[in-house]
Structure to design on (278 residues):
């Protein structure tokens, strides 16, 4: 608030550092405009990823921030590449409407070769993409039966396993404001999908699932049941033992990418179902 023309970033070494800052987040960030008629452009960088390092390493509590989202009060994103991170920070610095920005920041992507960006991704004409379609989507649209949506690091776990031709994986890089029109457009580009799914690393009562489920249902035209692939409901954010973590990650990825057994319905997904912006 003291430096309105400065891009100010606050980083927690571990995601759980946000837990003890919750009163400040609730009082002065989520409700800054509604309660105090103030406009903050503060960026929160919260390390968050399921990397076998235990619960404290994975507890940025994405679900809490999404629960606080309403009336365009903040922006919540989980960028999956350096270029996306650069562009969203640049957008934040130049955005005419100052709002807090919450970014999930998995540490493992710092050294993951598959997550690297090219110089062309930062060149003139490139911008932040709230939704990123499957890179192979154009070549296999007619073959896709299961359309997976996910956010953040888990995309690279799916990619490492090998994505079948009958499955497409779409990244939702910005969760709030919910990119309804962009997601609806992606859904309509796959003519014969039988399943739409959300994949996450977090337990079912945590992460983005509770926030995403009703919105994704509307964005798909209310035509399909939204399936969930992830950890079951749990009290703790993550496993405390690397072996247990690895087993759970493998289960989630394996189930999500299993070849759909149901044959294509031949139904053309033309977007004719009524959609109301969530």
């Amino acid at each position: 608030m003291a430096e309105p023309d400065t891009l100010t970033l606050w980083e927690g070494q571990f995601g759980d550092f946000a837990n003890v800052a919750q009163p400040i987040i609730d009082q002065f960030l989520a409700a800054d405009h509604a309660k105090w008629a103030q406009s903050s452009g503060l960026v929160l960088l919260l390390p968050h990823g399921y990397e076998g390092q235990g619960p404290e390493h994975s507890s940025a509590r994405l679900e809490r921030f999404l629960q606080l989202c309403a009336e365009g009060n903040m922006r919540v994103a989980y960028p999956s590449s350096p270029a996306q991170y650069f562009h969203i920070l640049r957008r934040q610095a130049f955005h005419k409407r100052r709002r807090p920005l919450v970014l999930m920041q998995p540490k493992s992507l710092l050294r993951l070769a598959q997550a690297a960006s090219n110089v062309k991704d930062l060149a003139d004409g490139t911008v932040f993409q709230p939704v990123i379609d499957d890179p192979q989507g154009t070549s296999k649209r007619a073959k896709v039966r299961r359309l997976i949506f996910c956010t953040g690091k888990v995309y690279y776990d799916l990619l490492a396993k090998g994505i079948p031709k009958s499955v497409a994986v779409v990244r939702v890089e910005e969760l709030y404001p919910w990119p309804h029109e962009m997601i609806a457009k992606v859904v309509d580009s796959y003519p014969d999908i039988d399943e739409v799914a959300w994949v996450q690393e977090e337990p079912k009562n945590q992460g983005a699932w509770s926030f995403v489920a009703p919105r994704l249902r509307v964005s798909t035209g209310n035509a399909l049941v939204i399936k969930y692939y992830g950890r079951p409901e749990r009290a703790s954010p993550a496993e405390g033992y690397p072996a247990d973590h690895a087993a759970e990650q493998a289960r989630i990825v394996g189930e999500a990418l299993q070849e759909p057994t149901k044959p294509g319905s031949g139904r053309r997904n033309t977007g004719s179902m009524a959609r109301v912006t969530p």
In short: Residues 266-274 have pLDDT under 50 and may be disordered. The first helix runs from residue 22 to 30. The chain has two domains: 9-122, 132-257. The radius of gyration is 19 Å.
